[in-house]
Amino acid sequence: MSAVTEGRENEARGKRLSRTAIARAAVGYIDRHSAQGLTMRGLGQELGVEAMALYRYVTGREDLLEAVVAELLDGVSARLDPQLTGSWQGYLQTLAHAVRRIALDHPSAFPLVATRHPAAPWLRPPLRSLELVEDFLTALSSYGMADEQVVEVYRAFSSFLLGNLLLEAAQRGAETSPVEEPLDEGSAHISNTDGQLDLSGKPAIARFQPLLSEDHSAEEFEIGLEKLLDRLDLSLSQ
Predict the structure, then answer these.
(1) What's the whole-model pTM score?
(2) Tell me, what CATH number does 34's domain have?
(3) Cβ atoms 120, 194 nearer than 8 A
(4) What is the pLDDT of residue 217?
């Protein structure tokens, strides 16, 4: 095959590319090879294009990993069981199972949800995208909870999901350590401050931001530990 013919075929394949298509292919690649094994070159080979073709849609491996996380979390709220969302308990139950489904279907990719930078430092994995958190805060508020109660539930629920689902992913052989970020494959815009975070269209997050920004880590740890000990004490005494 001549270089010209090969170039035309690569171009034809490239026309079928999009950021979403690349992210979905990357999830499949990670399922088979692990997140640590994901490279622009390897993914390009699977898609039948040169790695440079991918750079039209992602700026590099760092940005590709961000796209993978967005793909994993996309549509979570739409997959909730409407028969359960009539109460806050049912809402949390169906949401927990929807997020767990991601961890079970993609155990090698799920740790990225925990280790990648969230949209803002006061957002917690695995409920880390602005869209998902906006839906969560709005839903909990609609059940009549006070703002402080909503934030308490968000923190406790996130901690529960993260601990349990990372453990399940690890039991299925996933690498849970952060993926090393190469310095020569482009970069993504990572929000580690919230000074320029665009919250237009996210009224619930804007409203709850001061409460979400408060650090109660030590208190939450002690409360969680006490509840665990109480539950164990009850179980062992029976």
Answers:
(1) 0.81
(2) 1.10.357.10
(3) yes
(4) 84
